[in-house]
Amino acid sequence: MDILKSQIRDFLPNFFTGKPINNSHRELSKSVNANFVLFNKRLHLLESGEFEQVSDDFCFDELASKSKKLLNHRHDQVSIQLLLPSGDFLSTRHALPDLPKESLVSALRLQAEETLPSFEKAVAIAFDSSKSDAEEETIVLWHDQEKLDNLFVAFKQQGLFLAVIKPRILAFEFEDLSCGVLERDEVNETLVIFGDGRLKVWRQVHKIDLDQEELGEQWRASLSEYKTTPVHGVDNFHKLKQFFTTDIESEYGFFPSGAVDARKKIDKGRKMILAGAISVALLCVAASPFLLQSIEFRRAGMLLEATRLMSKEARQDQLVVVNFETQWGPLNDFPEQRLTQAMFTLQNVLSPERLSAIEVSEGLIKLQGTSSDPQAILQKLEEDPLFTEVLFSRATSNSRYYIDLRLSPVNFEAYMVRYFSED
What we know:
Distance between the termini: 44 Å
Largest sheet: 5 strands, mixed
Strand order of the largest sheet: 3-2-1-4-8
Mean pLDDT: 79
Oligomer: single chain
């Protein structure tokens, strides 16, 4: 069985058995032959050093038209890498399990609503999937996927192909693999620290916030933490160009959907051409009546084993997702009691009365207080959709009341049955 699998892998080209997403990203990065960088309202073409001024409220069409103008002297097919200000990207830290990168990207997208609660659009994600330490947290960068796609469309309308978008601070290369970069532009200051060639720290502040004494002191304190680390300052295009390299291998690239689809279409065309050539060769061989039966038998066996091999990978991927949900489900689905909302609601219902005691446990709230009309309080609580099972837990006496109620969105019983049924 193992010998047959090996024969199938040797028979099929690498791009038949490789991972299409990673291959598309890798090929797009390799295809880049023109690099643009946006720095302080100027769009620079790194290869020539020429630049064009952009407006304060520049749009996608303006960037594309300025790029077209800078490339007037180029007649070859251009594949563009656009280096945007570091302030356009958000960063978070995550302890990622040892899973394939595609599975991790899917898991991070599922948690995007909790990670970036104020960001409601589709997101693009980039991170270093190499693991030097199983317990080490990984820096994940986020960007607006819609903005990437709009940029691609604007460049396409100018006859240009936008392949990769990357934070400009990650387009540097240094002889020392453990160092830092402090990038300053008109809007932001960004500090990144590398350790053994991997991104360890990403810290950022808006310059306007530095006018506040407390925030300024915090930022200076952050910088002072890395006094022993060589930190290169970059505050203009010429310093950036000094450290820029086209040979750096970084996984922090962002790829527009249109660029990925175009790359996949090229790969699909190559596969179809090769598949056609193989089919013609097989037909020529099959023309011999003495070899036809043997070839058909072998072909059927190889197709059967290839199908089994492909379904095995699908089952393994499915098992990874199931295991991931099993491990992370108790944390992601833990009932949120919304205590802040509940307290504000109780304040509105009970005002101007005051509580003498309150107890909250697994969605159950016990209230104790005094009022001239406890029945009215009970009725108001029953009418509020946030509460359910509202009742007097004890008989009232001398205007003192005892009320039990539950938070309607909280269901600890269902949570316990789902994840801890054996207990």
